Amino acid sequence: MFKNLINGEWVEGPRVTRNINPSDTRDVVGEYAQADATQARDAVGAARAAFGTWSLSSPQQRFDILDAAGTEILARRTELGNLLAQEEGKVLPEAIGEVARAGNIFKFFAGEALRVGGEVIPSVRPGVGVEVTREPLGVVGLITPWNFPIAIPAWKLAPALAFGNTVVMKPAELVPGSAWALADILQRAGLPKGVFNLVMGRGSEVGAVLLDDARVDAISFTGSVATGRKIAAACLARMAKFQLEMGGKNPFVVLDDADLDVAVNSAINSGFFSTGQRCTASSRLIVTQGIHDRFVSAMVAKMQGLKVDDARKSGTDIGPVVDATQLAQDLEYIAIGQAEGAKLAAGGRAVERNVDGAPGFYLTPALLTETTASMRINREEIFGPVVSVIRAKDYEEALALANDTPFGLSSGIATTSLKHATHFKRHAQAGMVMVNLPTAGVDYHVPFGGRKGSSYGPREQGRYAAEFYTTVKTAYTQA
Ligand code: ADP
Questions:
Q1: What is the arithmetic mean of pLDDT over 372-384?
Q2: How far apart are the C-alpha atoms of 243 and 171, rounded to whole Å?
Q3: Which of 73, 420, 385, 32 is nearest to 258 (CA)?
Q4: What is the enclosing helix (H) or strand (E) of 197?
């Protein structure tokens, strides 16, 4: 059994959960201890006690530990990628890529630990000096989702530790394996006891402790809008700092002058890869009328060639949906779309067994055409391999449709026009804009985050991560 890490000790919990492989539900990835509220509080206490020393640790110590963790993650990318694909269901090359990303994130933030500089500014008063420095926040609670089982924990954990915070992390219930592997690696990399604590368990129980315990100074969360709202309310009530990454309803605009292959490949990638379970996935393809029919035909042709099968089998393009609940939600949205008048142009069929007879949560990628902006399928996040096409008159209408959403994470366009690409980059209401690239798939060393209903608080990743994981101090000295 895989245990929780509290104050440097591996501890059992009152319950155990079985981690199930969505590609073959007969396959149990492992048994994982579930912490309860008391253990979550113990973990917070351990993180609190460890903060004093860790917050004053040398940058070299933090560099060495984060760098060692990054090196081990990169060296074990195939093995850890296999585990990730097994527990989450994204295909093996994507899973290995995600693990490599996590390793690189640790390497990046190892370097950032050495670069925490400040500013020296002349005072307006004679004889006075002003220094602006950054200090850690204290204990940070990390609550992570299932769709990036190692990259999201890594991109919260690495900056939190690099800047001298201590951490209690609660990974998503469906994917404890990758989070446990990360805890094991960090533990062996030499983190002092209590600096990083892993508590696996339910959001409503273990997550809730992190929100309400006054010893937790800040919460970084990625997950659904509904949970994000609860977290915001709980943190505000006790003035804790918080950062939220939530849903998306990302548009991908295809203009008449687009390179058709670029447009189709980008839409297939960002609509369906990782089974459409990325917050940056394109779920609305907004296509101008001169290219609409050619684009839809090319999409349908390409989709017919996509192989839906076991995530770890070579040649699989699309793995299973993560679990039965998510599959039911995807199918429900397809039905809602059809009831609203959309046409199911391809896919959308649940497949109970793959070609080897293994039972899993398979769904053929679905394309809904003849949809309008007001349909629920174009307003609500589905979070599966379900994409709709909206017809637009021209660029101006396409841009307006792209921005007509409560979300604002990523926004893409396929065009060969410099004029439209430049205008779109400026006017897309999103935290990230992609030109002739999928809306999903981002670098690890630059800011990640959105606007409107997608995100709240400072950006994650890259140097901008310091905005969340540190607090600024302005010191005045009279010489
Ligand atoms: P998803 O659809 O990705 O599962 P959730 O928002 O339900 O989105 O879950 C994201 C993370 O938030 C998970 O780790 C989950 O356990 C946690 N979570 C869910 N509900 C709560 C809650 N009430 N308090 C704290 N954490 C929660």
A1: 98
A2: 16
A3: 420
A4: strand 196-198
